[in-house]
DNA sequence: CTATTCTGAATGAATGTTCAACAAATGATG
DNA sequence: CATCATTTGTTGAACATTCATTCAGAATAG
């Protein structure tokens, strides 16, 4: 089941932010060895504000998310956001970029971990989409908030599309590889579209929270798709119904 | 290809509105034979404002849609919306309800037209999702705008879910029927979820307009899904690759 | 003439942004 | 080490703008 949408309480949020910021700070420190303390602090604040933004997007939605919400959510004063980010627009773009980076890093890691076998890689990619770390109500709600505005904002559209640029190519390549080894009839590009669209659609369903769709049942549906599309690579758990 | 997102020009909009309103007016007149002229006029205005709302949602997105936009788009004065609809919130709910009704009527008609064969019915439902009348950039953008706000608004959530309540049940029943006659291995409920999620995901992709996804290629992907999941009912156009 | 529909300016609330003052950390100097 | 200067980070009130809503009166239909 998805965890509750209730935003992380202040203490938890702080910890998560600091945790995340620490890693980030380290990598940044390697690149530029200067102003270390200050620089780190600045990044911590920005991440803190970005996390608060995600909270607000999840709780109130895009149109009701205000600068005051974000500042309050982070436990800081009203003018702070315009100091670290120039404007509300830039805060939101930074938030979306943060989520896109996180998402891309996540599936790339899963892909690497899966080794060289296309069938294992594809299964890993699909499973990665439903990991708790990125597939929770908070993040899904934030994603959907951006999707809703993407059509009328080229900047959002480009960042949401970060998911597709390389991602979609990987899917096509994997579908092509499986077709080769399994002698399937589909067109790789078309099957890849169907597959990735289903993943996004399942996210949407999870986000809506209607019906009784859970992370588990969504993953089950995705795997059933794999079994149907690539039966030789993903045999059915139980044989066909006989009576 | 999807038509341009440019909202219908005033003349076209008027015609479409009046056309649509005429039918609606007739059915309403059957129910309650009273205040005919006035009632009809009132409904025309409301539809006109709803159409203008969809235009604005598609062009500016949810968060940037203002009462002034809607009034201007309809070619009427500023205070008119609060006269016909009590508030902005109620206008938006009415708009969503209008789209949900239209969508439901559309797939029900397609289902009826398909006859009694489950395989034909399922194909008809899938194809109906990509009909020009409901699957165009304008409507898709409006749908997505509501999705983006649905999580934080129970009213929207319920109306978006109108799609799922009965719709999902039909899908499950059809998947069960095909499983019976085709001796497939999947679980009907799970396969129905995968299928309907893919349809929504394709809508999302179409709305985003990224890549080169068109109504045609989206429908092709959906049909390829059908062939993969129900090979005995939807044989591949061309046989498996042999070399 | 009466009821209904419509207009457009006025109003008030919400909210993004600015900014002057303040606090804290860093660096320089003796 | 102590002290001051400077840069950086933060605050909260003030400001300007946008926008939904209201409403008194005009226009129109019955």
UniProtKB/TrEMBL annotation, chains A, B:
The keyword Transcription applies. Residues 66-85 bind DNA. Keywords: DNA-binding, Repressor, Transcription, Transcription regulation. Residues 1-42 are annotated as: Disordered. The keyword Kinase does not apply. GO terms for molecular function: DNA-binding transcription factor activity; transcription cis-regulatory region binding. Residues 43-103 form the HTH tetR-type domain. Residues 11-42 have a biased composition (Basic and acidic residues). NCBIfam families: PRK00767.1 (NF001978). PANTHER family: HTH-TYPE TRANSCRIPTIONAL REGULATOR BETI, HTH-TYPE TRANSCRIPTIONAL REGULATOR RUTR. This is Transcriptional regulator BetI. It comes from Mesorhizobium sanjuanii.
